[in-house]
Amino acid sequence: MLRFENVGLRYGLGPEVLRDLTFAIEPNSFQFLTGPSGAGKTSLLRLMFLALKPTRGLVRVFGRDILTLPQRELPGLRRRIGVVFQDFRLLDHMTTYENVALPLRVAGRDESSYRAEVVELLGWVGLGERLDALPLVLSGGEKQRAAIARALVAQPEMLLADEPTGNVDPQLARRILRLFVELHKSGTSVVIATHDIALMDLYDAKRLVLHEGRLHVYE
Amino acid sequence: MSAKHGAAPAERRDGREGAARKPAIPKAAGSKSKAAASGPTRRMGPIVPASSVSGNTLIMVIAIMTYLAALTVGAADLVRRTADDWARDVVRETTIQIRPAEGRDMDASVARAAEIGRSAAGVVDVRPYSKQETARLLEPWLGTGLSFDDLPIPRLVVLRLSGETPFDAVALKEKLEREVPGATLDDHRRFLDRLVAMARTIVWLGVGVLALMLTATVLSVVFATRGAMAGNRDIVQVLHFVGARDGYIAGQFQRRFLRLGLKGGLAGGIAAFLTFMVAGFTAEQGVGSAAVDQMDALFGRFQVGASAYAGVVAIVLLIAALTSITSRVTVYRTLRAMN
């Protein structure tokens, strides 16, 4: 599904922030990506959701080498990956419903074809009563769940979440983890970047630990 | 890492919470029946918010540019039509001028010149101007109430040409010089040719000014689009991450800018229409006054033709299209740079 071989990344002429990464995200797998702040978790996630290209090494996403992938084919791959950002990245001028429906809208689907789907998903994440609310009036937890719903709505094959519980209380963190576990059980590969040890202890899963730009995998 | 706390904790601890109430992720929601049962289509807001584009400023710039471009089109059209009229007049008419001289019988000379004119091939009508008529022609310059008896005013004989039978100006000129002392065939072709050439130069200058204005409009739109892209960078990034193609993102901005271009273009176009109408009305009101008559004589009646109005409509559409296309191209370029 996603394979890194001897991948290195540097920004401009700076030092390598990621070095010699070799690992794979298998289909229907669940893993935590962890490490101290500044270890490169977000950079690695950005490589994984095709926002960056490596400065060296091989990255294959769904069997395609992203260094040789034509620009026009990137959107097709991105649609197979759901991303939950640490800062949610909800569009403030759109309602919760519109934000969550965005991936389906940009895919060119007619609103009537996905309305029930989006409403049901919003109900599933506990935002059934907040369809028309703007992000500005949502609480941190609600924003987080809206961001998760947006990442899930197109039923991606892989879900990447950057500190999805970083802004919520422990109770909501457990609830959000529960959402990801359910998603994993339904066949999606899940990568959760977090430095919350307590959260990782809640679920038995592979851990990818980044330290000083290098990755250590603990099965 | 083997020291895990088992797979159950999340389920165990969150058994009462929202996600656990519905353990299965909704997958079948896309079915047609459910979609159909979910009520009427929701109206989706724009992806690029109107407030994020400096719309009013751009509308004003586009309106001003359209207005100036439309005025240029109107002026060029006026000059072009006047030049065409002049050119037609050259073909239609020519004038015999008889200069006064001591002891010259001007009336006899005029009569003889008219006779010669009448016998020339290609002349369909001859109109000798009387002394009073000639004096009236000078009124716009010299005013009324003057006695022209003491002034050495040349006399005119206007020949109207058929335009179909060839008119031999050289032969007529020679015959007049031979038979009517002081008579010359006023060959104003050269003079009018120069005026026509000047008028055409003005038209081309207008085209040049128009091109500069359109370029300035395009540059304004480029700056506005770049500003909008910078202001909406977050939106563009999110669109990328959810799998939007560059064409889709460009389309969102293009739609917004097309609307701005149409609004600005229409405002400028309507202002130009009103200006043409007010100017035409004002000129109409002044008919009969010496100044307006003189302007009419030189430049023709100030009346913008249908072609100018059509030109203004074309300018409005062109500027709207340019705005739309420019924003699309700029978005593509910016996206390429972002990628």
From TrEMBL, chain A:
Q: SUPFAM superfamilies annotated for this entry? A: P-loop containing nucleoside triphosphate hydrolases
Keyword presence, Iron-sulfur: no
Q: What is this protein called?
A: Cell division ATP-binding protein FtsE
Q: Which SMART domains match?
A: AAA
- Gene behind this chain? ftsE
What the entry lists under NCBIfam families is as follows: FtsE
Q: The organism's lineage?
A: Bacteria, Pseudomonadati, Pseudomonadota, Alphaproteobacteria, Hyphomicrobiales
Which cellular component appears as one GO term in the record? Answer: plasma membrane
GO process terms (BP): cell division
**Organism in which the protein naturally occurs:** Hansschlegelia plantiphila
From TrEMBL, chain B:
Segments of skewed composition (Low complexity): 21-40
| Origin: domain of life | Bacteria
Listed InterPro entries: FtsX
Question: Which stretches are transmembrane?
Answer: 58-79, 202-223, 265-283, 303-326
Q: Where is the composition biased (Basic and acidic residues)?
A: 10-20
Q: What segment(s) does the record annotate as region Disordered?
A: 1-49
GO CC terms, sorted: cell division site; membrane
Q: Does the keyword Transmembrane apply?
A: yes
The answer to whether UniProt assigns keyword Transmembrane to this entry is yes
Q: Which UniProt keywords apply?
A: Cell cycle, Cell division, Membrane, Transmembrane, Transmembrane helix
Gene Ontology biological-process entries: cell division
Record protein name field = Cell division protein FtsX
Record organism? Hansschlegelia plantiphila
Upper classification of the source organism reads: Bacteria, Pseudomonadati, Pseudomonadota, Alphaproteobacteria, Hyphomicrobiales
